[in-house]
Amino acid sequence: MKHFLRVVTQFFVFLYCKCLWRGLKFVVRKFTGRCELQRICYNNKHGARRTLKIGMTFILFLLQSALSVHPDKVEKTIDDIMALKKINPDTNPQLGISLQASLLQIVGYRSLVAEVEKLRREPYDCENPEHEEMLMKLWKELRPDTPLTGRISKQWCEIGFQGSDPKTDFRGMGLLGLHNLLYFAEHDKATALQMLHDSLQPKHKYVHFAFHGDMKGIHQVDW
């Protein structure tokens, strides 16, 4: 029954998108003299709200390729879209500027997400000197006055790791987790030390400090 309802729902959504929605858009354009991109830019101030609407419109217009262009090609992409939508750039000079600004934000965001995802998928490698150096930096930031007795040591539990080999704590978020923890310790040391102190208290001992490094990588927004 649930499968049947899902199929029916998908059918009506398809019908709406392909027929009713397009028909409604046609009527609105004839009535206002503006396409959807024009209405979005003229009715919304520059910012996240406008950029989100433009991104969703590109997807609905089957213009997803525009969201993945190189930043150097954003201007040409907008010119092509305006030509496709039959928008005169001479009578709508601000529209092209607004669309370029929003598309640059989208392209930059998607590029950042790709870089972060690449870090997340990269496992911690104890044979990689750069990975090991970052891990040692983390120890020195959180325990500057305490020498580490060895690479494999129960001392790692003192800064919130769950075992004697900290690499096992990065299985969820990969190298991104280590980057998060090190950045946190270097740029907001007071808060990091306080969180570490709290996590080691009896009432909080089940929440390991290193857990926070993994948690920082969970939230994402997709276009």
Helicity range: 55-70%
- Give the low-confidence spans: 215-223
- Into which percentage range does the β-strand content fall? under 5%
Structural class: mainly alpha
Quickly count the domains.
2
- Principal-axis shape: elongated
Count of runs of 4 or more consecutive helical residues:
9
Give the number of DSSP strands.
Answer: 0
What is Rg? 25 Å
Please trace the helix and strand order, writing H or E for each element.
Answer: HHHHHHHHH
Cα distance spanning the termini? 31 Å
For the biggest sheet, the summary is:
none
Mean pLDDT: 80
Would you mind describing this structure in some detail?
The chain is mainly alpha-helical and 223 residues long. The protein folds into two domains: 31-120, no CATH class; 124-215, no CATH class. The chain is 62% helix and 0% strand. The chain contains nine helices and no strands. The protein has helices spanning 2-32, 36-43, 48-60, 74-84, 93-121, 129-142, 174-187, 189-199, 209-215. Helix 6 runs parallel beside helix 7 (174-187) and helix 7 (174-187) crosses helix 9 (209-215). Mean pLDDT is 80; it is low at 215-223.
